[in-house]
Specification:
Elements: H1 15-27, E1 34-35, H2 36-44, H3 50-62, E2 66-71, E3 74-79, H4 81-95, E4 107-112, H5 119-131, E5 135-138, E6 141-144, H6 149-158, E7 165-170, H7 178-185, H8 188-209, H9 228-247, H10 263-290
Antiparallel strand pairs: 1-3, 2-3, 4-6, 4-7, 5-6
Length: 311
């Protein structure tokens, strides 16, 4: 039997983030809602207690990320439109990141002047600019080598900040050199160390899991070295960790990256290991979701009082 390292967990796994990872990587395309009991089983594999699962689901439903429904004494959850949009964007970022193409030397520059009375909205704007790969060159001034004018326009409109935001596109004419400017806006050294740690953490497991019979009998020996639930846990943690990395990656053109950039090999490892684990992990999730599920699950209706419902 081929040994595989024991699955270990990061120091902090926040409940809402875990629910997002579960829905984003396994349930995004699911047409029917999921019974709370199935969600408790799946998230319980990651150490969440039933009470913690119910609390997270209730809070995310109240915030509009999830839509809840009830049938008898059972509650069901599915992604609401808001949550589906967020996770669709996240999936695109993880599995189809921006291409590392040649750079034309043009920068997109965004400035904003948001009143202190709207600081929460201002924080949301900063968060979205970071998600676009922009970096702060000064207070209220952000840049990126990518042409994100359309995305910034959509964000400003959604946050009702259009009259507070300006967008420019052009060259940097002085006086800091480009490398220093990049260091000022993005901490690539810290991100590179995190990518290196990610690669080192998972590469040994990938080699072992490639030989596991759970993949369909390929390779030797022909005896599984782990369970489908273990494959689910591994893929969950792999995605959970990698999602945070790419969420902080500006995906700069190759000419602006360090020569020893680890993002590319980490992406290749992620894609390979994700593929290796997908078959047994997805089958496990499907089996758990089907368990105890009636022939026809209820339609998704928004509810705000499911926190007291027992699975």
């Amino acid at each position: 039997m081929t040994p595989v390292a024991t699955v270990t967990y990061p120091a902090v796994l926040r409940s809402q983030d875990m629910v997002f990872t579960l829905f984003g990587d396994y349930l995004l395309e699911r047409e029917r809602p999921v019974w709370t009991g199935a969600l408790i089983t799946l998230l319980g594999q990651l150490g969440m207690s039933p009470m913690a699962v119910r609390t997270a689901l209730s809070r995310m439903s109240r915030k509009g990320w999830l839509a809840g429904s009830r049938r008898g004494n059972r509650s069901w959850y599915a992604l609401a439109a808001r949550g589906r949009r967020l996770l669709s964007e996240g999936r695109e970022r993880i599995y189809h990141p921006p291409e590392g193409s040649a750079w034309d030397g043009q920068w997109t520059l965004v400035t904003y002047t948001v009143p202190e009375s709207r600081r929460r909205v201002r924080d949301r704007l900063r968060s979205r600019l970071t998600w676009l790969g922009m970096g702060p060159v000064a207070s209220g001034v952000w840049i990126t080598p990518h042409d994100v004018r359309g995305a910034v326009e959509e964000i400003a409109a959604a946050l009702r900040l259009t009259r507070h935001v300006e967008v420019f596109r052009g060259q940097h004419l002085g006086f800091t050199d480009t490398a220093a400017l990049v260091r000022q806006c993005w901490d690539l050294d810290a991100l590179n160390r995190r990518y290196a740690a990610f690669h080192e953490r998972w590469r040994g497991d990938l080699d072992a899991c490639r030989r596991c019979a759970l993949r369909g009998g390929r390779g030797a020996p022909n005896e599984p070295c782990s369970s489908p639930a273990d494959c689910f846990r591994r893929r969950f943690l792999l995605v959970h960790e990698y999602r945070e990395l790419v969420g902080n990656d500006p995906f700069l053109p190759p000419s602006l990256l360090p020569s020893d950039w680890k993002g590319r090999e980490s992406a290749a490892l992620f894609q390979s290991y994700h593929e290796v684990l997908t078959g047994p992990a997805v089958r496990y999730v499907e089996e758990v979701c089907r368990a105890g599920e009636p022939e026809h699950t209820p339609p998704v209706r928004q509810s705000r009082d499911l926190h007291s419902t027992r699975a």
